[in-house]
Amino acid sequence: MSGGAGLPGAERPIRVLLADDQHLVRTGFRVILEVEDDIEVVGEAADGERAVSMTRALHPDVVLMDVEMTGVDGLEATRRITAPGDADGPAVLILTTFDRDDYLFSALRAGASGFLLKNGTPESLIEAIRVVARGDGLLAPEITRRVIATFTRPGTGATSVAGGPAALDELTPREREVLVLVARGASNAEIAAHLHLGEATVKTHVSRVLAKLGLRDRVQAVVFAYEHGVVRPGA
C-alpha cells in the first residue's frame, strides 16, 4: 500500500491525529498509516480533552476519533472540534467497535464527516482518511442504508441538519441536480460523467450547494436531501 501525494513535487501529506484511549490501538493505527507516503501521523491523544487541545495546537487535516474514552468522550470532542465558526477545521472520522445507531446519529449530529467500524480492513481505513481529507463525507455502505432509513422514517424526531426547504430555493437547477446525485452516493467523477461536466466544475457546484444550505460536508447533504424530500428511498 503506497500513496503518491507525499512524493517529491506533490502535495503535502495528510496530517492525522489519532484519538483512542488504548495505546496498542493507537500504535496499530500508526503502523498502518505511516506506511503510506501521503499520510503523516502528527500526534496521539488518549482522551477527548487531549484530542481537542492537540487539534488546536497541531492543526491536523483529519482526526481519527474513538467514541468511548474516559473523561471527555469522542462525541463531545467531535462537537468541540467541529463547533460553528471553525469551518476550516479538520474532518473528524469516527472509528469504533460499537455498531450502535445512537453512536452513529450522535456522531453525525456532532459534525463527524465519516463513521467506520473497527472490523474493517486497513485499506478501507486508509481510503476513508483520504476521502474525508479532500472534503468528502464518508459512511460505510451498510451505515448509509441505516442513515437513510432512520432520517426518512416519519415520526423519528430526527434533527434537521440545516435550515429547511426555503434554503432549496437558493439553489440553481444545476446545483439541485448535483445535490440529488450527491444524495444517491455519487462521487465527483460519477457526477461529472453523468452531467457531462469537468470534475473541477462539479467540485465547485458541490461547494456552492453546501454553502447555500449551510452544510458542513456531503454526509450532511445526504441527510438534508432525504429529510426534505429532494430524493426518496428507492427512487
UniProtKB/TrEMBL annotation:
Residues with PTM 4-aspartylphosphate: D66
Report keywords, A-Z. DNA-binding, Phosphoprotein, Transcription, Transcription regulation
**Is Cell division a UniProt keyword of this protein?**
no
CDD domains in the record, alphabetically? LuxR_C_like, REC_NarL-like
Quote the Gene3D superfamilies the UniProt record gives: 3.40.50.2300
Domain HTH luxR-type: from-to ranges: 164-229
Which named protein is this?
Two component transcriptional regulator, LuxR family
**Species annotation:** Micromonospora avicenniae
